Amino acid sequence: MRADTRQAGQGHDGGRGRAKRARRGRGAVARHDEAVIEAEVRRLANTMRPYGVLRRDALERAAGAAGWHQGGFDAALRAAVRTGAFKQLPAGFYRDADRATSAC
């Protein structure tokens, strides 16, 4: 009779199946984080719409970002600029990119 040399918790694949499931889990987490940021970008856009231009701190207050997860506002603001939803202006101001430049 052969002695089982596998370590505790490892299946017949030597633990590779667990690692594969963990990688798949990280992908699900990344997709969730991306969906959260997209939702927060939409919230920022909806907040900005009536104003057109706001300072960063005013946008954060108006959006109620104090209740968001840590770093959520900054990540959403960066994503809004990166995707072209917002344009970053001098002195800490941001503009809704849908607004005509001459309106500012």
Please outline what is shown here.
The chain has 104 residues and is mostly helical.
Structure report:
- The chain has 104 residues and is mainly alpha-helical.
- It has a single domain, classed as Arc Repressor Mutant, subunit A.
- 50% of the residues lie in helices and 10% in strands.
- It contains three helices and three strands, in the order αβααββ.
- The protein has a three-stranded antiparallel sheet with strand order 1-3-2.
- A hairpin with a 4-residue loop joins β2 and β3.
- α1 packs across α2 and α1 crosses α3.
- The longest helix has 33 residues.
- It is globular.
- The chain starts with 15 loop residues before the first helix and ends in an 8-residue tail after the last strand.
- 13% of the residues are buried.
- The mean pLDDT is 82.
Essential attributes:
mainly alpha; Arc Repressor Mutant, subunit A; 3 helices; 3 strands
Topology:
Blueprint: H1 16-48, E1 53-55, H2 56-63, H3 72-82, E2 86-88, E3 93-96
Antiparallel strand pairs: 1-3, 2-3
Helix pairs in contact: 1-2, 1-3
